[in-house]
Amino acid sequence: MNDSPAETVLAVDDLQVHFSTRGSRGARRTIRAVDGVSFALRRGETLGLVGESGCGKSTLVRTIFGLNTPVSGSIEVLGHRLAGLSSRRRRAIQNRVQLVFQDPYSSLNPRLTAHDIVAEPLRIAGRYSRGTVASLLDDVGLGADALAKRPAQFSGGQRQRIGIARALALHPDVLVLDEPVSALDVSVQAQVINLLKDLQEKHSLSYLFIAHDLSVVRYLSDRVAVMQKGKLVEVGSKDQVFDAPEHPYTRSLLASIPVADPRRRADAPTQLQES
Ligand SMILES: Nc1ncnc2c1ncn2[C@@H]1O[C@H](COP(=O)(O)OP(=O)(O)OP(=O)(O)O)[C@@H](O)[C@H]1O
């Protein structure tokens, strides 16, 4: 067995992202949407990120993708600090991290075929071949008949598979999964989650997995980070966070949303089974 510590693929250190807004009387107010967040994501692991709406999850994700500018702190991908890179180098490093969107209904261009959707990042990177596109679609369980179809001709689960194939096109090290199954029927959620598990193993992917459904978080995550008002109030193994939560906020979050134990079939409404 290899006991060496796993490589850190994404490191966020003391990140601060603030917004300035005007209150009802015109006074300026600073919102600390991300307020000193630090975590390290290791190769092959899944870190679940949970917290109530408005706690700062989207701002954190947007900042990882360069869409918000932090006030301070750093983001490192594969040991490269993003802020210090030239824009060309930054794009190349940023490609190591890809996003899977929540809503497969609105995130795919309805006018493009599945082939063109998956081909787009490959073309931009100068790495396009029809065989690569077909093999990416095959990887997510879609056959050659999918290539010429447009999003409206697919089910929600199939659309999310196309979104995953596109995210995998440039062989990333990290996928940020932003509520990847919450827009899907419960009956297909387990299929997509199990596909994500298989792909993770096959490609040694690391996942930052954001979800409201704590049963799904428990099933997919190795560690769980709990976010409240811009801060990570608790980070630990999933068993520690779910079975012995230390922070009062974690305890209240778990109490407000019952978590089925996915290891027990009778408790698993989405047929999630731990392997
Ligand atoms: N562009 C912005 N301008 C001003 N305030 C913002 C902006 N974006 C986010 N905020 C504020 O920052 C805080 C965190 O918002 P954020 O959207 O990151 O939370 P969230 O946890 O992702 O919520 P949700 O799950 O509902 O998407 C909120 O108070 C929000 O109102």
Structural overview:
This protein has 275 residues and is α/β, with parallel strands linked by helices. It has a domain at 101-171. Helices cover 33% and strands 25% of the residues. It contains nine helices and ten strands. The chain has helices at 57-64, 87-94, 114-124, 130-139, 156-168, 186-203, 214-220, 238-243, 248-256, and strands spanning 8-22, 28-42, 46-50, 72-77, 80-81, 97-100, 174-178, 206-210, 223-228, 231-237. The strands form two sheets. A six-stranded mixed sheet has the order 6-7-8-3-9-10, with helices on both faces. A four-stranded antiparallel sheet has the order 2-1-4-5. Helix 3 (114-124) runs parallel beside helix 5 and helix 5 packs parallel to helix 6 (186-203). The two termini are 20 Å apart. Residues 264-271 have low confidence and may be disordered. GO terms for molecular function: ATP binding. Keywords: ATP-binding, Nucleotide-binding, Transport. Belongs to the ABC transporter superfamily. This is Peptide ABC transporter ATP-binding protein.
Averaging pLDDT over every residue, what do you get? 91
Shape: globular
Secondary structure tally, helices? 9
Distance between the termini: 20 Å
State the order of secondary-structure elements, H for helix, E for strand.
EEEHEEHEHHHEHEHEEHH
Annotation, overall tally of beta strands: 10
| Strand order in the sheet with the most strands | 6-7-8-3-9-10
Gyration radius (Cα, Å) is 19 Å
The structural class is: alpha/beta
| Helix fraction bin | 25-40%
Uncertain runs are 264-271
Oligomer: single chain
Largest sheet: 6 strands, mixed
List of distinct ligands in this structure: adenosine-5'-triphosphate
Proportion of beta-strand residues: 25-35%
